[in-house]
Specification:
This protein has 139 residues and is α+β, with helices and mostly antiparallel strands. It contains 2 helices and 4 strands; from the N terminus they run E-E-E-E-H-H.
Length: 139
């Protein structure tokens, strides 16, 4: 997996009202910036791509709002792609769809436990539904 770690820089969650009826939850990840980055490893520095993100969680009706910002370090499978990805971002503010999917899945896995705990403490709906046991009627 070419995504290494997440550095969360900001978490905002605000409760705006009580829960009344059905609530729709919208998860909206957004890439804010893509730039050259590096990490230090035991064998030396490794160049890659630093991706700054904001992950918005919206509620309808607006009973709460949440936002998590941070950065991930992305290392493409081929190092030659680093310049291609950075150029694509500079020209069109776009990244390859496979890269976006991999980054969003990684971020979602990393921040979901945090958001679940805070949602429970603030008494707002979880951003991801929990599994429920249903009893079957026997005939």
């Amino acid at each position: 997996m070419p995504v290494f770690g997440v550095n969360i820089t900001k978490v905002e969650i605000e409760k705006q009202g009580g829960v009344a009826g059905k609530v729709e939850i919208n998860l909206s990840p957004k890439v804010e910036e893509v730039r050259l980055g590096e990490i230090k490893t035991p064998s030396g520095k490794v160049n890659g791509i630093e991706v700054l993100f904001t992950y918005q969680i919206g509620y309808n009706p607006e009973i709460a709002r949440a936002s998590v910002s941070g950065a991930v370090f992305y290392l493409p499978p081929q190092k030659e792609k680093i310049d291609e990805i950075l150029d694509g971002w500079e020209k069109e503010k776009r990244i390859p769809s496979e890269m976006f999917a991999e980054i969003v899945n990684f971020i979602t896995n990393e921040i979901t436990p945090l958001i679940m705990v805070v949602s429970k403490e603030m008494r707002i709906p979880y951003p991801i539904p929990l599994p429920r046991v249903a009893l079957r009627q026997q005939s």
